Amino acid sequence: MSIIDDTRLRPAEPSRAVVFWNRYRRNRAALLGLVLFAVVVLMALTAGLVDPGDPLRRAGAPLTAPFVDMATPLGTDQLGRDILSGLFYGARISLLVGVVATLVAIAIGVVIGALAGYFGGWVDDVLMRITEAFQTIPNFVLLLTLVAILGSKIEWITLAIGIVSWTAPARMVRAEFMSLRNREFVDAARNLGVSNTSLIFREILPNALPPIIVYASVIMALSILLESALAFLGLGDPNYASWGNMIGQGRAVLRTAWYCAAIPGIAIVLTVLSFSLLGEGLNDALNPRQKQ
Amino acid sequence: QDVKTGGTAIVHMISEQRTLNPALRASTGVYNISGKIVEPLIDKSYDGYEPVLATEWSSSEDGLAITVKLREGVRWHDGEDFTCDDVSFTAMEMWKPLLNYSSALQANLESVDCPDPHTAVFNYSKPMPIDLFVAAMPDLGHPMPKHLYEGTDILKSEYNTAPVGTGPFKFVEYERGQYVMAVKNEDYWREGYPYLDRIVWRFIKDKSAAAAALEAGEVHESGFIGVSMADVERLSNDDRFDVGTTGYENNVAHSTVEFNHRNPIMADLKVRQAMYHGLDIDYAIDTIMRGFAKPGRGPVPSAGGENYTDDVKTYDYDPELAKSMLDEAGYPVKDDGFRFKLRHRPAPWGEYTQLWAEYFAQAMKEIDIDVEILTNDAPGFLNGVYRDHDFDTANGWHQFRSDPAVSTMVWLRSGQPNGTPWTNQFGWKSEEMDQMIDDAASELDPETRAEMYHQIQRKAMEELPVIFAIEHPFISVTSKKLMNHHNTPRWNSSSWYDLWLDQ
Amino acid sequence: MPIPPLLTYALRRLVQAVPVIVLIMVGTFLLLKLAPGDTVDALVGDMGGADAQFIERLRIEYGLDQPVWVQLWRYMSKLATFDFGWSFVYEQPVATVLMDRLGTTLLLMATSLSIAFTVGVALGAIAARRAYSLTDNVISTLGLVFYATPSFFLSLMMMLLFSVKLGWLPVGGIKTIAGFYTGWDHVWDVALHLIMPTAALSLIYLSFYLRLMRSSVLQVADLDFVRTARAKGAGETRLMFHHIMRNALLPVVTLFGLQFSTVLGGSVVVETIFTLPGLGQLAYQSVIQRDMNTLMGIIFLCSIIVVVVNFLTDLLYARLDSRIELS
Amino acid sequence: MSQDRQDTAPILEIRDLKIALPEGSDRPFALDGLSLRVNPGEIVCMVGESGSGKSLSAGAVMRLLPEPHVYVADGSIHFEGDDLLAKSEAEMRGIRGNRISMIFQEPMTALNPQKTVGWQIDEVLKLHMPAKRAERRKHALDMLARVQIPDPESAYNAYPHQISGGQRQRVMIAMALALSPRLMIADEPTTALDVTTQLQILKLIRELQREDGAGILFITHDFGVVAEIADHVVVLRHGEVVEQGPAAQVLNDPRHPYTQALIASVPDLAPPAPKPLSDSPVVLKGTGLKKTFAARGGLLTGKRKAVTAVKDLSFALRRGETLGVVGESGSGKTTVSRLVTRLLEADSGAVELDGADLLACTPAQMRAMRKNIQMVFQDPMASLNPRKRVVDLIAQGPIVHGANPAEARENARELLELVELSPAAANRFPHEFSGGQRQRIGIARALALEPKVIVADEPVSALDVSVQAQVLKLLADLRDRMNLSLLFVTHDLRVAAQLCDSVIVMQKGEIVESGTAAEVFTNPQHPYTQTLMSSIPGRDWTPPVRNTDAA
Ligand SMILES: Nc1ncnc2c1ncn2[C@@H]1O[C@H](COP(=O)(O)OP(=O)(O)OP(=O)(O)O)[C@@H](O)[C@H]1O
Ligand SMILES: Nc1ncnc2c1ncn2[C@@H]1O[C@H](COP(=O)(O)OP(=O)(O)OP(=O)(O)O)[C@@H](O)[C@H]1O
Ligand SMILES: [Mg+2]
Ligand SMILES: [Mg+2]
What's the whole-model pTM score? Predict the structure, then answer.
């Protein structure tokens, strides 16, 4: 053994998950985000277990204030529906809308962005023109149009939100792909005879994911806000208790029964906040740039 | 109290009225503005029909000719004289071919003769009941100045959005999306009127914002339930405002539940009756309408005068009964906990319609019927229900227009072409009912006519082609600074010549 | 005479924008045709009903009885001559309808975006400067909270507080109706009316700029040339203003261009609540009314605005980034 | 001489400096007990492998450590007798750039891209020199002239991106010397530059320092540079000083085994005896290759000028031969390697592999052909997919070409042993290895397909010298054992000299000279080749006889 020896391995590092977690928990705000997020998830999961069943059922006298009747601890709305129950079921809808719309947006964005960024040239030109077109139409107006076409079913609303949100991830994926496709490991794989599809999805995509995952939290937050704005305009799906619907209807009684709108409003603020904080935490953990 | 003259009254309007020509568009929204600028031949007061531009009217024996005497010395806002030519032109060029609803009413109008400048003779090919004619005139009888329209494309005339009339106020400007303004007509034929200097209609789409504007004193009146029901109730306890339904006697609406009778389940009378028993109408009136309503009793509302009767079959809230009726009808509860599933389309107008739909779904769930609400915007709704018939149940509100013949009967009469909104597109057809409606429409004797409508009303309550669940007038919130307000049964559509502002 | 490079550049951008705009127009047209119902349905709905012949006649009048592609062709060939057509809902030429609203919307967007931009950038820079301190935490948290608050919620709360409770600000509208102000009084009046809507819009977008600027500053502060400047003996303030800011602004400027159209969408809700006669609300109404021509006009106008704004941000970018030369 | 050094008053004196690293780092102290002094007019070179703490010691002197995570835990730093560690931040600002100045490695990024060169020089003057604007401008122009920038006036108004890398580094130097500092710290100031430019810069630093009599703390990892410039050498390893002394002594008679090993790793310039290859078959042959990067410009930049990266290039590579491609940055070396492997499409020309024209293959045929021609890349980190385990990285090629995955993985483990890595490495991810180890994995991956030709683009230029030697040795061993042909691209002439049988020298996309390594190195014909050869830093220094076994 000589003094300089580069064949001896370093001791094995802790697994990625552990490293990730260690980085993540350094950010205290992100931890708060995680806790809030966990609460929302828990609410979504336990809706129906903890609380009286159907959130659309008449549960008590209309417009009972919070903490007055213990059967409806957070009060009831105009039709006597239990707000607490709506809050729990609403968590389910908000998460569902957030997650599914995000998946849709990311899926479209990844495909378009990956093809444009990987192939460049005219493929890029065509796809980017389409992306620009989508970006130029105000997204909320497009959303309204889609909802006008598809109707206000929660499935369609979610899909529509996904459709209006894909441009940003597409641009991002494209940028990532454009920088990654010139990286040597891509050349290395190509030089091994790997096909384009595998190059795109097996070699490049996994490396492009971290910023996309971070951005997913932004889309998720925006999706929830979009859904609530739709509901505010009366275009929500009334078959489900969603926070947006609750605010949309609650605001009619804002002056007399503030809690109908304020409680779900705060729930939205906290949930969106949790996504944002989560996103920042993920960003710190996945793309460590600056050392604190 | 002494009348004060001058001042500007500011009125809230929920939605913008793009055209202001009441001879092209019959809708309360249009009248709300145009009523002050353009006058009808006849208006309605609490004492009955009141001459405006017409001074007297009479019918020939056979009902084929109606003669109307016109007021003399009336001038259009541009200074031209108002004459029979204007009436004749408007009736033939606008009321008959272009005016919604009026086309059906005037379908048999052959010509309008002008024996002298202030006499108009309406010639019909089939008898026209004078009562019906008169009842229709406040809404469907606005003459427009011939000299401004003749020889132009009437639908694209600039005067459609800048109307020239004979009314107490003259149109000034229309700022899209913001307001319409009209000023005092110094040359008004009613001497000494109007009191106000100016009226401004402000468009505020958002109901909460409208309530805020009322409270901030930026708006004096909001009609047609322009604020949320909660705010109506709240402001009714605020002594700065008069809140009430007076002045809407001629503008009463029903909140309804409509069935698609093409669906065999809905076609089953027992099911419809059971569903009616499942609806707690009183609860809905209390919570949704805040008490400003009463239970419906069929197609003619209590505001329908002699044509109305309350001697009809009624359906009390009794969910247990409803359930057993459904069981009997052969729709027991299945494994999924429901008897059957309904796709329900709510009309997208207004907060309480939405709530009514949600209450309907809620109530149906109590009797084990699953209701899926399909929300759409207006064209989507109208298409879904009235053209594609893609629904099981629907709800909305329908306005009664002072006479059953020109309003509610279309919901029961079969035979309208597909896609005509607010007609019987429900797949319900009863030869008997059709006959009864036709007979009533051409019956000239008022008493017999009323009796015929009672029959129709009773039959409708038995067979329930549509549930006329709640009858509600509209509600106004009015600042107490306004005087002489809501003093006619269609006040928001009237000319407001005697309105004044106490300040 | 040689054409100035800026002009050629502008021309090239214009030519590039044409296919995008055509794509948008055709896409929107077809999309809207997919929606159930048409203008006539909406109009009749608005009127409170009409009889069958009347409806039939309107359809023919508006050309809605033609096959879709005929309608599309008619529309596009008119558009090519900058004829936006007639709005059946407003019974006015679309161009008039749009021009009525454009001013308000541009005013609203311009003020809220510039406030959002300047305040966001300033706060972002301050937060980054004191990264991980209390100041940073307060600024960042506030930014996130505003970002997380639905705009309608914020608007309603503001209206409740400032108009109803305190009576300081008018509830809505763009000016005092029947106020008949002129000159500076008019300007002041409009400004008063715009305070709340502007605040509601800008607070939301502010947080975007704030967060981006913060991370951008942190990133730039780590770059070598900042270290060089430090080694020259430059103080923190000098570093921030002369070295970091300008470089950190670049991504923020890009976002500014990208976000412009989003703001128009975002203003739908705010305009509705504050009754501002702007394009956002008009767009929403046009969708609901199936007012094809008006909606298409808005989208067209909006595309033009976005193209212009992107062009301007590119110029700004080029001005800020000496590495880019327009040719 | 060592006596003299102690007598003069030092400009900089560091004693027992300890710099603490944040918790969780690989070692608690980045620097542990560094002592050194810099006398006036003296260049002290600090050498050591990557991560040994060189940059942090410079940071400590400037008081620009990334506190509070990294801080001076112990020791003292005296500058002209003053205790720097006791100075306030304001006092330090007065010293930085004025009495102590600094040059950094990357001239690309060390200048603010948004400010003109003149502004940036002016900034340092403005901060420390009470003078009028015109006066400062004149001074700045003088400085630019002093660092031999051709047209100082236009350089003054230029943005950094408008001048070349070498000129940028001159600007940095001008900035550093503008106020005649007592001490200048240069952190690898020439590493990013071409050999020819490097030599010019080194000479410039030397001259200017002679004129001003400043002390220089010069950080480098290249013993060639040390030999070129140093008066005194400090050798660092893992934050500890292993040896220091006068340059001549450390270079020619290193005492510490580590220093000895380091010096032994420096390739010497004598090429090996030519192998008898003329009768082996040609495996790879390029004819008339041409590549022009036609410029599809960005939206904003418009059309860029077309760059001809390679024009009319022909070569032949025989079995068992190593063909070196040398030339300075931008001469087209990488382009050649990518054309040959068809990672770039050539504009014209042919590449024959065992007689088959690669450039004429269909994509599918090409994928099959790739088996025969493999690559080793420059950046050992960037060329390994960070999301894949080593075993999968190595087995990927065979699996793509139809091998049984389980067998391919088994093979991969064996290959790891071949490149002298423990099979335990198989299940790790690339980031868990050092640079040299990663390059070994890269070699194993190339070998997994049992190719006929390996194309290596600067395979060792990202590695420390010591490791470089080992990787080169491995490569040479494998080549000989498996009778591989190697197309070896490098800008480092020392490396080329050590490994290559024949060499082609490129300039601006063209071959200016080719021949056996021995011919080209001992008797360069073309003037360009001659300049290249004479620019090799420390070319007059021959590392002492290897008395340690470096491997
Ligand atoms: N900001 C920091 N935070 C934590 N660790 C650091 C920081 N900067 C440097 N280090 C660690 O300190 C050690 C010495 O770093 P330094 O930059 O001085 O090395 P170097 O000798 O200059 O290496 P190179 O030749 O690669 O530039 C390394 O192990 C590095 O990981
Ligand atoms: N993708 C590309 N697009 C445009 N120009 C390019 C591209 N790749 C290389 N060039 C240009 O081609 C020329 C040759 O580049 P190449 O990378 O082959 O040089 P090199 O000899 O490998 O340099 P280095 O030693 O810096 O790696 C350079 O002028 C470079 O700017
Ligand atoms: Mg270093
Ligand atoms: Mg290269």
Answer: 0.86
